[in-house]
């Protein structure tokens, strides 16, 4: 990694772009598969069986990761550019959101 | 007790706009030595044809910036101790994102052209016969204008920015920060024209908020936040116009 890029904000930028690219590649395939419910039910069932494969189940974690990273990356960017707050306040706000998300996520997983 | 002389392993970029390569030098290490001291030692003791640029040596003039171990830095205020690892290796190159004139001297013309384009020249709002407008030092606008006023035009932020690398028409962090200063300067007579320029292609909305400008600014200025200010202002104007 080149010296001038070696800092958290640049990595956040890279992660946001890469997760966006990943989702852009995934979504057309996702919609095409969903459309098969109407156009080709047998084909869809075949796909549904394929998603039971452990490797595919594992890849779904990656998908959730991409979604989470991209969602929070976008919120980060909006806060960075459209909230003229001091950096310290933004850090506190981000930390409290992360904390709240952790707690509510734990409850949600418990409920599931 | 005599201390043994230590040496730095320095590779320096030599060449011009068309081609070039790194050349190695062995430079004696001293206490409190700066990168500019290293370059000067090479020019004075090893190879007098080495070309580089400096003037004040105290971080005021903004002329000595170079790439040091991959990062843009003001070389007169960068201590060797801070950037050379335990292996005492230094890699010194001309600033990124600018044409090379020769060796370590980059052509700053594109950088200054963009500075002027984004409103580098002051446009007066009154004549000498008018009363001087009173501006409260503690007003929010003056605070925002003051934030970027200590820019020394060293082009470190411009060299650090990957958006500049990808888009040669992008005005860059320094020029946009200058525009933000002007937009907040009540005494400037043509603020609308500056807003118009920074909202157009190559303006503030090209910024990807990578933050390298703010991280590397040797004067601890915050061009990324200044550009964010321009983004907020131009977005607000857009929605006002649409309503």
Automatic annotation (TrEMBL), chain A:
Organism name: Nitratireductor indicus C115
Protein family (similarity comment): Belongs to the cytochrome b560 family.
Pfam families: Sdh_cyt
Cofactor binding remark: The heme is bound between the two transmembrane subunits.
Protein name: Succinate dehydrogenase cytochrome b556 subunit
Main subcellular location of this protein, as a coarse class: membrane
MF terms in GO: electron transfer activity; metal ion binding
UniProt-annotated binding residues for heme: 70
Entry annotated with the keyword Coiled coil: no
Cofactors (names): heme
UniProtKB/TrEMBL annotation, chain B:
EC numbers, comma separated: 1.3.5.1
InterPro entries (UniProt xref): 2Fe-2S_ferredoxin-like_sf, 2Fe-2S_ferredoxin-type, 2Fe2S_fd_BS, Beta-grasp_dom_sf, Helical_ferredxn, SDH/FRD_Iron-Sulfur, Succ_DH/fum_Rdtase_Fe-S, Succ_DH/fum_Rdtase_N
Gene3D superfamilies reported for this sequence: 3.10.20.30, Alpha-helical ferredoxin
Classification via PROSITE patterns: 2FE2S_FER_1 (PS00197), 2FE2S_FER_2 (PS51085)
Obligatory cofactor(s): [2Fe-2S] cluster; [3Fe-4S] cluster; [4Fe-4S] cluster
PANTHER family cross-referenced by the UniProt entry: SUCCINATE DEHYDROGENASE [UBIQUINONE] IRON-SULFUR SUBUNIT, MITOCHONDRIAL, SUCCINATE DEHYDROGENASE IRON-SULFUR PROTEIN
The protein, known as: Succinate dehydrogenase iron-sulfur subunit
Higher taxonomy: Bacteria, Pseudomonadati, Pseudomonadota, Alphaproteobacteria, Hyphomicrobiales
């Amino acid at each position: 990694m080149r010296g001038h890029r070696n800092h958290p904000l640049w990595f956040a930028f890279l992660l946001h772009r890469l997760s966006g690219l990943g989702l852009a590649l995934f979504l057309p395939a996702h919609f095409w598969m969903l459309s098969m419910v109407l156009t080709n039910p047998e084909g869809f069932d075949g796909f549904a069986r394929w998603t039971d494969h452990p490797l595919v189940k594992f890849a779904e974690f990656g998908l959730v990761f991409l979604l989470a990273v991209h969602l929070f990356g976008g919120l980060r960017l909006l806060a960075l550019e459209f909230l003229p707050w001091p950096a310290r306040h933004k850090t506190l706000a981000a930390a409290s959101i992360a904390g709240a998300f952790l707690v509510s996520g734990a409850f949600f997983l418990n409920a599931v | 007790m005599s201390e043994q002389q230590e040496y730095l392993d320095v590779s320096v970029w030599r060449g011009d706009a068309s081609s070039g390569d790194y050349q190695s030098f062995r430079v004696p290490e001293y206490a409190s030595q700066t990168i500019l001291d290293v370059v000067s030692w090479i020019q004075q003791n090893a190879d007098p044809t080495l070309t580089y640029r400096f003037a004040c040596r105290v971080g005021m003039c903004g002329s000595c910036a170079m790439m040091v171990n991959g990062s843009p830095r003001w070389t007169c205020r960068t201590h060797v101790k801070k950037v050379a690892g335990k292996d005492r290796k230094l890699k010194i190159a001309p600033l990124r994102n600018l044409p090379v004139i020769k060796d370590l001297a980059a052509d700053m013309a594109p950088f200054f052209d963009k500075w002027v384009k984004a409103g580098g020249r002051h446009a007066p709002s009154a004549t000498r016969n008018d009363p001087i407008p009173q501006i409260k030092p503690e007003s929010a606008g003056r605070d925002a204008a003051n934030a970027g006023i200590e820019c020394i035009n060293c082009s470190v932020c411009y060299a650090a920015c990957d958006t500049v690398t990808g888009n040669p028409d992008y005005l860059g962090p320094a020029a946009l920060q200058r525009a933000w200063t002007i937009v907040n300067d009540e005494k400037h007579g043509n603020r609308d024209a500056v807003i118009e320029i920074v909202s157009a292609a190559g303006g503030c909305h090209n910024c990807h908020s990578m933050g390298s400008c703010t991280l590397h600014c040797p004067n601890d200025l915050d061009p990324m936040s200044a550009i964010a200010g321009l983004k907020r202002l131009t977005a607000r104007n857009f929605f006002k116009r649409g309503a």
